[in-house]
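Lab notebook: predicted structure, single chain.

Context: the supervisor wants predicted structures on file for every construct in the current expression panel, including those that have not yet been purified. This is the next one on the list. No modifications to the sequence; it matches the entry in the shared construct table.
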Amino acid sequence: MKTNAPFLRLGLLSVSIATIFLLSACNAPVRMTEPSEWEGERDYVQMDRTLQGQVVIKDVNRSKVSDNLLQVQAEVQNTSRRMTRFNYAFEWFNEDGILITSPPVTWKTRQIEGNESIFLTAVAPHAEAKDFRLKVMRPVSRN
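Prediction complete. Output recorded below exactly as produced.
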């Protein structure tokens, strides 16, 4: 029986390349702190899709500061060579997972140079804040 060796090699090469792409897509760039005590898992970071692959949250840490307030620090890295601007905000949640709406969420703008890392730090507005979410988005361009 005659086999078509070039086609077999091409098929194996295609499968190998597809496997490499799938395995690299599974690499999670963010190490999160431990989830809250309630059941389920919170997304600690929400990233605008237009920034994915350009801005990466490398690490997120939390601690307690005076008056038992939750403090959060996130390391943000620009993985491109070009300067990037982004807006960010921290949302705070109580022990039941309910969003704390007072005071209102404040969005801030930051600029990060190519291949640079910066730290974003925030302190919860109330001692009742037990958890958080960091939201990152590209600034809206005004024409």
